[in-house]
Amino acid sequence: MKVRIIGAGAVGAVVGWKLYKHADLAFIVDEERKERYSGGLAVNGEVIDFRFLTPSEADTADLLIFAVKNFSLEDAADEASPFVGENTVILSLLNGIEAEEKLSERFGAEKVLYGFITDLSSVHDGTETTCFSGGGNIVFSEKDNTRSARVEEIAALFDEAGQRYTIPENIMHEKWWKFMLNTCFNTLSAILIADYAAISSNSDFIRAVRLEAREVQTVAKKEGVIITQDDIEEMIRRVTALQDHGKTSMLQDVLSHRETENRYFAGAVSRLGKKHSVETPISDFLSILLEAKRRVLSV
Hints:
Belongs to the ketopantoate reductase family. One of its GO terms (biological process) is pantothenate biosynthetic process. By secondary structure, this protein is α/β, with parallel strands linked by helices. 46% of the residues lie in helices and 17% in strands. It is built from 12 helices and 12 strands. An 8-stranded mixed β-sheet has the order 5-2-1-6-7-8-11-12, sandwiched between helices. It has a 4-stranded mixed β-sheet with strand order 4-3-10-9, covered by helices on one side. The mean pLDDT is 95.
C-alpha cells in the first residue's frame, strides 16, 4: 500500500516508525523540511531514513494520513492535494471534532475516514521523537460505522505492522470521548505544567478534570452524542495509567513557545455552548487562562 503521511511530529513520526517496513511510505514535506530532515528522523534513538516528497514530486497515495495540528490543516491540505487521486483514502489523526468535516469539504466526503490516535505518550523535539508507550492506538472507521473493504485493507496493514488499532461501533462517540480527553487533560496539563507522572498522583487535578468533563458532556448531548459518567471515568483511568514523564502535546507546545490547539479544545466547547445557548464558564476560563499562561512563559 502506498502510504503518505503529512506531519512528522510526535504523532506522524511514531506512525511512520510503525509502518515504514510494511508499506511504500513517505512523508509529505515542503522544500525547507526536506532539507532539514535529510539526515533522517530519530524515533526512540533509532535514526530512520524515511523518504520525503515535496508537492512537486507528488505521486498518488492509496492512504493519506494527516498528522498535523488543527491550525496547520489548511496549509497541509494544500501541500497534500497533489497526492490525492480518485481512489485515495484520507485518514485524519487530528485532535478535536472538526478536521474530517473540513477535509470532506476540500476533497470529498467519500474519500474521508473518521479517526484519531489515543494511548500515545511521546515527546518530539526537532528531528527526534521519544515514544514512551510503544506507539499509539489508531481508532478509525467509516462515518456510518460500516466495515468497508477499505477499512479492512487498512486494518490488515496495521496488523502486519504491529500498529495497534480499534474499529469502534460508534466512531462519533469515540471522537467526542477523545475530544473530552484532550479538552480536559491537555488544557489543564499545559496550564499546570504537569507531565503524566504528575497528573496520575494529583487528586485535585482529577477533580478539575471532572468539572470540565461535565461541560463537554453537556455540549455533546446538544450535538446528539451521549457521553456517560462511565465514559468520563474510563477517560480518567486511561490517562492516569500513563505514569511516565511523557507530556501532552499541548504542554509540549507551551514549553516550546509554539501555538497551541486551545481554540480547538476548550475554545470549541465555548463556541458550541454559545451555539446551543449553554453556559460554559469553566471552558471559558480555562481557554483564557491557557493563553495567559502561554504569554507569561514567552516573556
